[in-house]
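Z., the sequence and structure:
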Amino acid sequence: MAEPTLAELEVRIAYQDDTIEQLSTQIYRQSQMLDRLGERCRQLEQQIEQLRETKSDAPVDDAPPPHY
């Protein structure tokens, strides 16, 4: 097998650099998305906890509806 020429190596390196840049950008975007999803999960957990507190504080009305 023939040794690659300097020009071929430079082309390969250029493609590799481009691929690395694309992967880096994608990882950054995914990291941002994970941060947003994590924050949204925390907000939802807080809302659920508030609903639990509100529900436990409310009086239980076991009376039948008026049409009975």
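Helices lie at 6-57. The first helix runs from residue 6 to 57.

Let me know what you think.
H.
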